[in-house]
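Students often ask why we bother encoding 3D structure as a string. The short answer is that it lets us treat folding as translation between two languages. Here is a chain of 103 residues written in the first language.
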Amino acid sequence: MYSPGPMGRDEKRADLEEVERRVAELERLADSLGGVPDERLVEELDRAAGLLGEINAAVEAHLEAAGRESRELGFLLEGTGFGAFDEALAELESREREQDAGA
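And here it is in the second language, the structure alphabet:
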């Protein structure tokens, strides 16, 4: 399910669909627990616990991947100079303030 390398959009979508499938299965299981005979209740609860574990593992993997991506982006942004952009933005904001004050 989870690969340690960067995931493309299609892989992320497939992973999300798999998690959604498990959540839907868990919801169906929860809805049916009231009608489950006592002798099968432990099996059904065990299955629910397994689904929760799988969902949790997928969520943790996505959080871990997002954290890595965030750190990588932070590293890239640290090396990027935005001085000219910041100056142009400050000048634009200054012009807008002057226009607002003159209106």
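Translate back mentally: The mean pLDDT is 87. Keep this in mind for the problem set.
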